[in-house]
Amino acid sequence: MSGARHGRHLVRVGGLFVAGILAFLVVRHYFVPTDFGVYGHYRAGALTDARARPIAFAGQNACGDCHTDIVEIRKPSRHRAVSCEVCHGPLATHASGDDPATPRRPDGRTACVTCHQKNVSKPARFPQIAVADHAGDAKCSECHQPHDPKIS
Amino acid sequence: MGGVQGFMYPNEVELQWSILIVLYPFITGLVAGAFILASLERVFNVHVVRPTYRLALLTALAFLIVAPLPLQLHLGRPERSLEMYFTPHRTSAMAMFGFVYLWYLMGILLLEIWLDYRRDLVCSHRASTGVKRALYGALTLWSDDISDEALALDDKAGRIITIVGIPSAFLLHGYVGFIFGSIKANPWWSTPLMPIVFIFSAMVSGIALVMLMYIGLSRLQGRRVEMPCVDTIASYLFYAFVVDFSLEMVDLIHRIYEADESFRALDFMVHTRLFTSQIVLQLGLGTAVPLLLLAVSQVAKLRDAARLRVYILAGCLTLVGIFAMRWNVVIGGQLFSKSFLGYTTYKLQFATREGLAPAIALLILPFGILAGLVRLLPPWPATAVSE
Amino acid sequence: MDQSRRTFLSDAGRWIVLTGAASIAWDAIAAGAPETAPNYRMTEHWWAMLLDIEQCIGCGTCVRACKTENNVPLDAEHFRTWVERYVVNIDDPDHPIVDSPNGGYDGFTDTPLGPHAKTFFVPKMCNHCSDSPCVQVCPVGATFVSPDGVVLVDKDRCLGCRYCIQACPYGTRFIDPRTNTVDKCTLCYHRITKGLLPACVETCPTGARRLADLKNPADPVHEFLRTHTVHVLKPQMATGAKAYYYGLDGSVR
Q1: Residue ranges of the domains in chain B?
Q2: pLDDT category, C55, cuts 50, 70, 90?
Q3: Which of B139, B143, B151 to mutate to test the interface with A (most CBs of A within 10 A)?
Q4: pTM metric for this prediction
Q5: B109 vs chain A: nearest CA distance in angstroms?
Q6: Which of A34, A148, B335, C138 could join A77 in a cystine, given CB atoms 3.0 to 4.6 angstroms apart?
Q7: A2 touches chain B (CB under 8 A)
Q8: Which of helix, strand or coil describes residue C213?
Q9: Sheet containing C47-52: which strands, arranged edge to edge?
């Protein structure tokens, strides 16, 4: 067929396209991670990566392993639901023993004021007070024991 | 917080998509519009615009090559951009667009240009020596066949590609519109009209660009401007503009009438932070004035020289207006809070990765590429007809 | 059966079991799959959060704890979680006055309140949507919903295109300027998969933030959700949000 003879350049272009697609597929094979698509359209290793973060807050249960005396004091107190690290800061390295330094003691005022300073936007039932009128510049811990703050 | 009025979610204060993302729909719009103009001649046999056929294709190619560059510059990790081709997420309009772009560049535009220029390329291959010969050899895929049968095949294939190319061009830019229009979280963007508005504004900008390029390049090369050609292009520009304007008005009227939860916040934004770019530039100078100019040129009997000046002015204002439209969509969509309680400002810097300087450079680059393409693949025969 | 055959069979059996176990373990290591890691099975959990507006005191401890635990940039433009304060005039609930100074990181100062207004705090975070619009638009599969219901970001694949940030109706995503990839609340995935609570839940002093496991009827928060009226933000977006608010006012955006 003479028509086919004159269409050779079109065949070459077609061949170029096919070659391009094949090259793309080969390159793709090397670039896509093997664990891609295991659970969905993502790399399964991303789940492992997300779990591998170091931990900063130990969690209340960890404190109880050593500080059983404090746990006993707090059991009936108003602060029993307040996690230790709310006032004492992140202590995972202290709990695991990786950090030999003694954690800094809260100053007996800053953390207290953060929650208990009177603010009209706070729920009315929440214990709050105008700290300046109530205690001036004094430390809250002078009268309120932080682990059992109610003054009976 | 500087520049914030009212309340914004803390993560919203800084704009995520910059002027580079404004550039991108502008550039792909020019590509789609230029191609549609070229296809008028090829498929719909509007022979009077034949002088702009090759120029429109080359313009589309020059801009299509530049189109991914603003995206690359914008990405946080541009070295990973090929992941969009290796592991495309089928639900993501952006991922699917990567393939639409590739299809359009390879399967449509390059192929159509090659088929139309093949005869000239083979002639150049025969006539040149050394490096140039090798270059033209590669460009012709080392085929020397320019017999009538071969050229007839080329013409047939070119026709098919152009026919397929028209919906492909609509897909190319409609997809960009869909990338914005499908975001339900953003009421400024989320509308089914978005792809259609984008397509028609693309046609308007592309036609205007090719018209200006034709006039400018003809003048530069000392060539006579064919008035019937320019008149026809200008009339198509006018019709496309009317449709585009109507669509945008439909969207506006709909928003004002329904007045949903986002309306007051958006209305306030348009009247304050977006006033210059939306009311003055896009609607006023960019739409109303060119429409008026084109309408006058259609109705009044102006002399050739005067008509040409009207077209040039209308064309330039159109391009400004369409750019402003892209700006208003992209930037405007990020100036208000998704809480509808506040607004922020866009801090456009100059010499940073996403600043004004690279944006200007990226707008100039396609013209540089086009200059090269015009030399390699002349759109008109070498015999210059000077006035 | 004689002794040598018995020994052979027991040795062979042991080898088969060990090789089988080793190959499973090896597959898990090779594929990075955490499914066979001890104790935690992803399919046993479907995580959600309960946010109790009536308990939130706007102390900002959650914001500080999250930034510490997850190494979030300390500036005012990047938050995995934040607290908003609402002041709502009851005759104009469509226009609440909202503020979130530094995301609530330093708490809130007191503001005077008119006689017709109410005020409260609203903690905000990623809603870990089950029908997540951010996951839908990611072009490369760098963000996804895990099998246990947490929306995570794969920092090794994220292009930083910011499409997901645009798609989130709640404004919970941001670009980490140090890596140029997207970051957001992970529900402290590294903690909950070890039986710990997310940092914000752990440090909330009033129990306004609580972790819920929707697959575990023994979970007290699961019981709370079953017996109380809760809302999600922007329900019209149909995102399948799993951050459930108790006591949410209609004016909250």
Answers
A1: 5-376
A2: very high
A3: B143
A4: 0.90
A5: 14
A6: A148
A7: yes
A8: strand
A9: C209-213, C47-52, C243-246, C230-231
